[in-house]
From TrEMBL:
UniProt-listed GO biological process terms: fatty acid catabolic process
Name of the molecule in the record: 2,4-dienoyl-CoA reductase [(3E)-enoyl-CoA-producing]
Lineage: Eukaryota, Fungi, Dikarya, Ascomycota, Pezizomycotina
Domain of life: Eukaryota
Transmembrane segments: none
One MF annotation (Gene Ontology) recorded for this entry: 2,4-dienoyl-CoA reductase (NADPH) activity
Keyword entries, A-Z: NADP, Oxidoreductase
Protein EC: 1.3.1.124
Organism encoding this protein: Hyphodiscus hymeniophilus
Record carries keyword Oxidoreductase: yes
Length: 310
């Protein structure tokens, strides 16, 4: 069943602006990345989404395809972003079946709450491998196609249909430090650095590389794992966001459309934070009580480690 446009895309965007474009997205079955891809497909693109869970990825691809009649959306599951050969094979299949890769979204990620004292070296390394190395592998696998797209669709300031764009999905935890998020803070700091370097190295080839940093987004897997239902129901969680609410997946999708569209032609090496200024507010995560109480009352005693989700 098709999802109403109002849930994943604002009305300001013109239909067809991404006609004949192809987007490749890791983590594409997730709530945020699927909304990003769905918006692009609605506006004319075809897509290939990558995920660890084959059934979930293929099902999401079929669902995204309902955003526009005649669209083509491939779901490739059972892939591990930590293995560059997996991504190279997926990128080759995407280019063969859909005609190339014009846009890339590196969105695969893993996260959970843990103090450093309860964080094993293996768990820390796993998040680095998924987020940072996975983003690097995604870039490496798609670069040849992005370079070719940029040649065919030059970013000269007058072309309304450019190609060769990559967005990395990051987080704001490392901006000022965040309790219980040492692993993700380190991983996403690396992603931000990778994007900035790609912008400098490949800008001369017409490629743009940017970061989208979502804040607390309503109804996502991330908030289900990291948020506090009690804090949300009481409204205490919303007080940490200057705008007084959580964001919507539509607002992340809108940022994605902006960066890939003609409007974002000269935006390169940027970090677009979409969080209602939440990261600028003082205090901790606010998901488990008042800072620093939740660090001192053993709220987060070491638990059985769970494998981070993609």
């Amino acid at each position: 069943m098709a999802i109403p446009r109002s849930e994943y895309l604002s009305e300001v965007w013109k239909d067809g602006i991404f006609s004949n474009k192809v987007v490749f997205c890791t983590g594409g079955a997730g709530s945020i990345c699927s909304a990003q891809v769905r918006a692009l497909v609605h506006l004319g693109a075809n897509a290939c989404i990558i995920g660890r869970n084959a059934e979930k990825t293929e099902s999401m691809a079929a669902n995204i395809a309902t955003a526009r009649a005649g669209s083509r959306v491939i779901g490739i599951g059972g892939l591990d972003v930590r293995k560059v050969e997996d991504l190279e094979e997926a990128a080759a299949r995407c280019a063969k079946e859909l005609g190339g890769i014009d846009f890339c979204i590196a969105g695969a990620a893993g996260n959970f709450l843990s103090p450093i004292s309860g964080l094993s070296s293996n768990a820390f390394r796993t998040v680095i491998e998924i987020d940072t190395i996975g983003s690097f592998n995604t870039l490496k696998a798609t670069l040849p196609y992005l370079i070719e797209s940029a040649k065919k669709n030059p970013n000269n300031g007058t072309n309304p249909s450019t190609g060769g764009r990559i967005i990395f999905v990051s987080a704001s935890f490392h901006f000022k430090g965040m309790a219980l998020q040492a692993h993700v803070s380190a991983a996403k700091a690396g992603v931000d650095a990778l994007s900035a370097t790609a912008a400098i190295e490949y800008g001369p080839r017409g490629i743009t590389s940017n970061i989208i940093t979502p804040g607390p987004i309503m109804g996502t897997e991330g908030m289900a794992r990291l948020g506090s239902r009690d804090a949300e129901q009481s409204g205490a969680a919303f007080k940490k966001v200057p705008l007084g609410r959580y964001g919507l997946v539509k607002e992340i999708a809108d940022g994605t459309v902006y960066l890939f569209s003609d409007a974002g032609n000269f935006v390169n090496g940027e970090v677009l934070v979409i969080d209602g200024a939440e990261w600028r507010t003082p205090g901790g995560m606010g998901v488990a009580g008042q800072y620093p109480d939740y660090l001192l009352d053993n709220t987060f005693q070491r638990r059985e480690e769970k494998k981070p989700k993609l």
